[in-house]
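[Solved] Which block belongs to which protein?

Original post:
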Amino acid sequence: MSKISAAITAVGAYVPDYVLTNQILETMVDTNDEWITTRTGIKERRILKGEGKGTSYLAIKAAQDLINKKGLDPKDIELVIVATATPDMKAASTAAFTASEIGAVNAFSFDMDAACSSFLYGMSVAAGFIESGKYKKVLLIGADKMSSLINYKDRATCIIFGDGGGAVLFEPNNEGLGLQDEYLRSDGTGREFLQATYGGSLHPITHEAIDEGGQYAYQEGRSVFKNAVFNMADATMKVMERNGLTKEDIAWLTAHQANKRIIDATAERMGLEPEKVMMNIQKYGNTTSATLPLLLHDYESQLKKGDNIIFAAFGGGFNWGAIYLKWAYN
């Protein structure tokens, strides 16, 4: 009996209609299009507007897109994982609500938070459930409403983040396709450099905290950039070396879209030509947990069965890693 591997068999995505351009940001904070583009590669980002719309709205829309494209009966889904750093609520699961709203009434569900590495870690978890033989259909969604954490008077963060959602379906494969290997790491000593301080158990929300803007995301850009460049590149190289892969073997680099310079540095370390690097940061900015599935959605028509894809991410915490996957369909 051949070994069961976990393959991605469908992709879906959703981004909000409202486009926040660099030109609009110029009217909100002391910045300009050239400064943003040169330092980040971002031209615009999508923002979810409307009363009562949280991360679950993005997750549901992305899941429904996948379900419609695949012709999937939601009742056949056995597990729903929502990778997110911006859950709808404390305690109440965003994944549970998402599963109910899409009609996945036979699925169990849970949220996963590893900041910008949430979807990457989720791929490992989803694959593990498939490889165990216990489940045959696992829906992994990456979704974040980062605009809910952003202070639009802080030019260090408001130029970077956007909102969006993406989804993939993992199913068993007996052809040796799907997830092949992973290198996942974390370092808790880096949490002070990228976080939203207030709202957790260590620093509950108070009137004073809100007055000081403590509920908003904060990052020390230089430290995050330095760690991201080194660790993303290091993780991808370790996965390549462990599996005897050369740059010629790699069809695509699918890297977290935080900063174009970080992505370029990772690709350069791997020796990859620009045409092998998935890139959509210019359109969406950093959508945190949604960046990897949004890339797959945007490049899906170019992917071929058997393509070797290296996924890489780095996020607050710090959390980072790389995954080697063979694409399963044309």
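(Second protein starts here: sequence line, then its structure tokens.)
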Amino acid sequence: MKAVVNYAPGDFRLEEVDVPQIGEGEVLLRVGGCGICAGDTKTFHGAPRIWGGDGQPAYISTPVIPGHEFYGQVVALGEGAGEKYGLKLGDWAVSEQIIPCGKCRYCLRGQYWMCEVHNIYGFQKGIADGGFAEYIRLPKTAINYKLPDDFPLKLGPYVEPLGCAIHAVERADIQLEDFVVIAGLGTLGLGMLQTARLKNPSMLVAIDLKPKRLDLAKRLGADLVLNPAEEDVVERVKDLTDGYGCDVYIHASGSPKGVIQGLSMIRKLGRYVEFSVFNEPTTVDWSIIGDVKELDIRGAHLSPYTYPLAIKFLADGTVKADEIITHEFPLAEFKKAMEVAEKGEDAIKVVLKP
């Protein structure tokens, strides 16, 4: 089969490799499409968070096939896999991005998304090859879901990002009277925006530097959109809240400036949710978090227990993704696809189609 193989930072190659062999409890999918995540482009550029450095250990092992935002059609089932997942040949399916070990303290407590081993598709050589390929093996501890028969398959690559977005919004614990800000209107941020809208906050503000994304955010439910390049967004939010600041700030831009912006914008006793992969460290005055505002700082990682809801929201149209999935490229054009995804001028979610 054809697959994109990651050997080192800046060294991704389209190659012919063997179709994966499956064993007991495993599933083989013919990939229908795989989204390019910001984490994939940052991996390509050698982010210390992935490759090690700046005091961080290496997370990735290569050579490995990237890609974790995939969907595909079932073409083979290992013994017991059909019964375990409710799958049969010909079904369309998705798999959560993490492949939990099932044995560590987190997995045993049901907190599988924080699995200590932490194998994620597209990062571990020989264990979790990803979806930038014609076929993908779903290991026996994977968490897989059948897509409904009437599911709009073009939206398959958006199940994973939407699952992450739902988790982030749940972490924010949005209340009816809350003034909520979503910063960063990429794939995740636009999913967070639509999910937060379902919570019916008193005010929902979307922030981004790109006018096209701000226009889309208006159509998807934002009460107000703000561009930091055109106005002082911190001052604007404070003006709208009698000088207090927003109740909830959810950050999804991956920019250190967005962190500082949020800590300045949020009110005392507010809730700050961080869901970003950063290329560089962020330096802030931590006394803001404790001594000045006594904030709740909440991380959000992956998509625990949210895939069924993400699938439902996309299937019934509760969450709109047609305008979020903006580009599709054949696997052979992966370099161009990654460039388009990284620049993000007209692109939001870019998908590779084997």
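Accepted answer:
You had them paired correctly. Confirming on the second one: The first strand starts at residue 2 and ends at 8.
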